[in-house]
Amino acid sequence: MLPYLSLQLSASPRWLLSWSLLVQVFSGGCSAQLDPVRNFCRRFGHQTAVIDRRLYIDGGLLNYNPISQYPTNYSNTGLFYQDLDVLGSSGMPELYANLSKNSSVPSVNGGTLWTDNVNKRFYLFGGEYYQQPPPPYFTLWSFDALSGSWDSLGQPAQAIINGVSYGAGVSISERGEGYYYGGWMSNNSIPGWSGPAVATSALVKYDMDTNAWTNSTGPDSTRRAEGAMVYIPISDGGMLVYFGGVQDRFVNGTVTGQPMEQIYVYDILSSRWYVQNATGAVPQMRRRFCAGATWAADQSSYNIYLYGGASIPPSPSPGFDDVYILTIPSFQWIKLYPSPSGSNQTTGQYPHHSLTCNVISSAQMLIIGGTFPAGGADCDAPDQFGTHNLDLGEQNPDRLPWRLFVPNLTAYAVPDPVLAVVGGSPAGGATATAPVDGGFSNPDLRVLMTRKASVASSRTPTRAVPSATGGSSGSSNGGAAGGEQGGISTGAIAGIAVGATMVVLAVLAGCYCLRLRRRADRNTTTTVGEPWSSQTPPATSLSYPDSLSLRYQFGNSERMATGSHGNNSNNRPSELEAPPPSGDFWHGTDGVTYGLLGGGGGGGGGSAAGGELRTKIDSEGRVWVQVGTGRSLISSSGSDGVVVSPLRGDIGGGGRTMSPASSRPPLPHEEPQELMSTEPRQRQRNILHSSGGGSSAGYGEAATATMSTTQGPPLRHETFYHP
C-alpha cells in the first residue's frame, strides 16, 4: 500500500489530492511489499513461450510471500523472462522483470502464446480477464522480441473468433501456424455474455505469415476444455495430439472427465481428426495439467510428457503431482514419477495445476508455476521463482527425472522406462511401432504413423531478422504480420515513447528510494530477509533527464510538478541557496515555502503560481517540494485546521502514514489493497492528536503506524523432489 499524507484542509482539498499524488509518485517505486520478483510466492494460469534462449512468462495470477499475509490472488500485469543461459543461485534460470507492457495490452489468465521463432515474435491468444470486464471485441496482440514492443494486429477479418480461455494451444514455428482447441466462453472472455460458462468444440488456426484465421470443427461435436495439445513431426506434415481435460456435454456448467485413454490426433495436411485408444499405465482423469513433446533422434518414438493437474469432480483428490509419458506410435502410457517400483505412492506430496511446460532443446522440460489446491502455507520454491526442471532422458548420474537445469544439455536420450516398453536404444531404434491391443483404429493411421515430417524449418523470415553473424535475413516485403517491412514498427515507436516516460519516472523514484535506503541503513537494525540479486549490472551513476515534469489533473484543474524555474534550461531541481535547515519546512529566498519530501507534510496557504510545484535539492540529495507561498504554513488551531502526520516510510522499516479511508484518493483497479484484518502482529500504532481544535469523525487525528519487518527466509519445499 502506498503511503498517504493524513491532512485536513479547509480551503483547498484539490491541493491535498495533488500533494498526495506527488508523494505517491516519489515513493511508489520504493514499495517492496508486493514485488513480483522479490516477494514471489506462486504463479498460475499464466502463458509461456520460448524464443532463442529466453523463456517468456506473461499474465496469469500471482500470490505474494508471505502467503498467510497476502492470500489474495493478484493479476500479473507484467511480462517477465528467464534467461536460459544465466543460472541464479538456486541453479535455475534467472528471472528478469524489465520488459515493457503497457495497460492497453491484455493481462489475462488461461490463454496461450503462439511462438514464431523464425520472425522472433509470439502472439497472445485467448485467456480471461480477472476482476475486470473483457474488451468489446477480440484483438490479437504480438510481442516483438527484437524491439521489445507490443503490436496490435486488430480483429480477425476472415472468421468469427471469440475470446476463449483454458483451452489447448500449440504453435508450430516451422510452419508458421498457431492452433487452439476447445476452451471456455464466459463473461470473463466475451463481453455481454450471460449464463454459465460454455466450452467450445472448435479448432482455431492462425497463419502467422498471412495474418489469416480459420475456425473449424474438432474431432466431434463434444465441447471440451482444460486439456493439453502438442505437436509431433509424424506423418507428412506433422500431427497435433490432444488428450485429457473435461467435457461440457450438458452446456450448463456441469462437466465430466475426458478419459485419458482416448487420444485425439489431427493430421495437419489432410485436416482430418482420428481417435486412437491408448493402453498401459493410463493416468487418472485430470484437467489443467501441462505437457510437452520430444522424440528420439531417428524419430522412431515420439514421447509426450505430462505433469500434474487437478482432479475431476466428484473425486475427493486435491490433484496430482506426477509424471506420465505417452509414447507414440505404440500409444502406451508409462508412469515415470513417482517411481512405480518400490513405492505405494500414486502421486507426489505437492499436487498442483494451472501451470506450463516448455521443452528446452529436446532434452529438458521446465515446469513453471501452478496453484496448490491441497492448501498449506508453503510457497512454490520462491528462490527459483516456481521453476522446476524435468530431465526428460534422465541423463544424470542418479537416473532420476528431477534435476537442476543444465544450459548445455541439448540432445534427448530415450530413458530406460520408455526403452523397457518400446525397445531400442537411447538414440532410437524402437521396435514397438503400433498399438499392442487391437492395432490402429483407422487404416489411414497405420500409414501416416510410418512417415516423418521434417524437423528442420524451410520457412524464411518475412522481415529483417539479425543472423548469428550480426547480419540480417528474410524478405523485406510480403506477408509479415502487421505489415512490417524490416524497420521499426509502429508498436516499437510507441514502446520507445512509453519507455522514455517510464525512465523519467523511474529516475525520480530511484533518487528518493536511494535516500530512504541510506537512512534505513543508518537508523534501523531490522532484517528484511535474505538479499536478492537480479543478476543485472548496477548502474554507475544517476542523472537527471533534460526535461522532468509530472502532469496530473483533478477535476478541471491541471497542475504540474516540475524542476524548471524560470528560464533555467537545466530542469533538475535547483540546489538550495543556503545550508539545509534542521526541520522539515524551509522558507526560501524566492518567497516560497518548501517541505522535505519524506519529512513532515502539510499544505495550505495557496497554490503554486501557474499550476506548478517548485522543487529544490539540498547538498545531502534530499528533495524539497513547494507547499505554500508564504511563511505561515502550519497552525495547530484556528481556520487553517492543518494536522501534520510525519511521512518517514523507509523501505523495510520505519513507519507508514495511515489516514482515514475516506480521505484517500482511489487506487487504480490493479493496485493491491491492504487487508486491514491481516496487519502484522508486530505493528505498533501511535495516534498523534492535534494540539487544539480537533474535528469530528476522526479527522482531527493523524494515525502513524510503525511496523517491524523482521522475517525469516522465504518459505520453500522442504524436500528436493523438484529441483
UniProtKB/TrEMBL annotation:
Coiled coil: none annotated. Keywords: Iron, Membrane, Repeat, Signal, Transmembrane, Transmembrane helix. The chain crosses the membrane at residues 492-514. It comes from Bombardia bombarda. This is Kelch repeat-containing protein. Residues 564-573 have a biased composition (Polar residues). Residues 471-484 have a biased composition (Gly residues). One of its GO terms (biological process) is glucosinolate metabolic process. The keyword Transmembrane helix applies. InterPro entries: Gal_Oxase/kelch_b-propeller, Kelch-typ_b-propeller. It holds the Pfam family Kelch_KLHDC2_KLHL20_DRC7. Residues 452-484, 524-546, 558-590, 649-723 are annotated as: Disordered.
